[in-house]
Design brief:
single chain, 112 residues, mainly alpha, 4 helices, flat
Length: 112
């Protein structure tokens, strides 16, 4: 909520027309809803609020959102944003590699 508050304060300070353009508003709103869904999932974990695939989907969506956003900014300010793009893309790669590794080991666990 604090992060969202600072984003809204930034939008109020520099003007809505200079911050987010059409589709980005939908993308970032969806991202915030996924963050709130992840928070609710943690708070209500003992009730199995949401399936584990939701968590994977939310994490991948948020990492992709950061990667796309940083890539757009890296075009104009490469020295600042290129490391951030690399971190975001690496995070996506690690997430997928962990998921693939987990699926490879899963049949071994059930038979042992």
């Amino acid at each position: 909520m604090v992060h969202l508050g600072f984003i809204l304060a930034l939008i109020a300070a520099i003007g809505r027309e200079h911050t987010l353009k059409g589709t980005m508003v939908v993308a970032f709103t969806t991202g915030f809803l996924l963050i709130y869904g992840l928070a609710a999932d943690v708070l209500f974990r003992h009730r199995t609020f949401l399936p584990s695939r939701f968590e994977a989907l939310a994490h991948c969506y948020l990492m992709a959102l950061f990667a796309v956003s940083f890539t757009r900014h890296a075009i104009t300010k490469p020295f600042l944003y290129t490391p951030l793009v690399l971190v975001a893309v690496t995070a996506i790669g690690v997430r997928f590699a962990a998921a693939i590794q987990s699926r490879k080991e899963q049949p071994l666990r059930t038979s042992a």
